[in-house]
Specification:
The protein is mostly helical and 167 residues long. The chain has 6 helices and no strands. The protein has 2 domains: 99 residues; 67 residues, no CATH class. Helix 4 packs antiparallel against helix 5.
Length: 167
């Protein structure tokens, strides 16, 4: 288990580098008035790194190669991996030019929708998507558009979750 956690730290450091690169690209397209010093993705990665480093350095069993994680911590690790995969997909697509730079604005929104889906709150996810698109992006989305968007996110989540069940 310690090897899995250590390997996850190495992958998070690679993801952190990708975030730094794409944040620089994003800042070039943002107004100085709206610019924030740290992206939400960067903050998440720092939080994840701190948690993983605690598990390796300070958690019980850290001195052995067999670091024991509770079922809850294993689930947390799986959720962190899932979130990082979503961030990685978006960031690499932006870096390669396959996805518009403004898509970075939607990463947090997509993850919020996934959380609603995990809680079986699809209607709330649709309402949240519509409200966020209106408030943050000044875009009116119809109920049909919102449902299709949330359905696409849900389908992708279900497919990925099925591939990576931890329990």
């Amino acid at each position: 288990m310690k090897k899995l956690v250590t390997n996850s730290i190495e992958k998070l450091l690679k993801l952190e580098n990708l975030i730094v690169i794409t944040d620089k690209m994003y800042e070039e397209h943002q107004d100085d008035d709206k610019a924030t010093p740290f992206s939400g993705d960067g903050i998440k990665i720092q939080s994840y790194l701190a948690k993983l480093q605690y598990w390796v350095e300070d958690a019980p069993g850290r001195d052995s190669d067999e670091l024991e994680l509770s079922v809850r911590n294993r689930q947390t690790l799986a959720e962190m991996m899932f979130t990082c995969n979503e961030i990685w997909r978006t960031r690499t697509a932006v870096k390669s030019g396959d996805l518009d730079i403004t898509s970075l604005d939607h990463t947090d929104l997509d993850l919020q929708i996934i959380n609603f889906i995990k809680e079986n709150q699809k209607i709330t996810a649709i309402k949240h998507y519509r409200a966020t698109m209106k408030e943050m992006f000044n875009q009116e989305k119809t109920l049909k558009e919102s449902k299709e968007y949330v359905d696409a996110i849900a389908e992708r989540y279900q497919r990925q979750a099925g591939e990576h069940r931890t329990i």
